[in-house]
UniProtKB/TrEMBL annotation:
Record-linked Pfam families: Lum_binding
Record protein name field: Riboflavin synthase
Organism, as annotated: Stutzerimonas kunmingensis
Ranges for domain Lumazine-binding: 1-97, 98-194
Top enzyme class: transferase
EC number: 2.5.1.9
Record GO terms (molecular function): riboflavin synthase activity
Reactions that this protein is recorded to catalyse: 2 6,7-dimethyl-8-(1-D-ribityl)lumazine + H(+) = 5-amino-6-(D-ribitylamino)uracil + riboflavin
Amino acid sequence: MFTGIIEAIGTIRALTPKGGDVRVLVETGKLDLGDVKLGDSIAVNGVCLTAVELPGSGFWADVSRETLARTAFIDLKAGNRVNLEKALTPTSRLGGHLVSGHVDGVGEVVAREDNARAVQFRIRAPRELAKYIALKGSITVDGTSLTVNAVNGAEFELTIVPHTLGETIMADYRPGRQVNLEVDLLARYLERLMMGDKAAEPKASGLTEGFLAEHGYLKN
């Protein structure tokens, strides 16, 4: 688990294909690795990765096909800056909100404008995530815990103060950028709870007679 309070900005130093997925080397900058052991979790742009090698100035981690398919990790290249946070401990201050490091979807920055000393961003989320995004609620963008200031359909707005711009990679954001989104865990659990006994029922496969007929597999 994480808090969404970014501890350091790191740099992707290598992305090496390995057996069908990717091994990544992250240089961790000012992030203190003194208490990090092999097998520990570190969030990279909000994606929970496991340290498999610790060469000293950073760590190597394996990125699965599932992660590449479901996050904006696929767009990263050597030299790109990334947000870093170590997993929280029982004595950590929960300055943001509870973050799992499991990305729910990829959003897109659609607008950026100055707002006094802050910067206003508008981000479009995937349609299926819109129901979890609430005015003044919490959302994680590339691992950063943020407060939603406005919602319009699947788009939401964020007001980012100078400190956050300086301590995260959000200063790099421009329209068209893909970002990792994780919605509030409480909203996910509440949705499941509201299903009641229906939660125990298996989901429909989606392979209906109508679908088969439409695609020519059933004939009258």
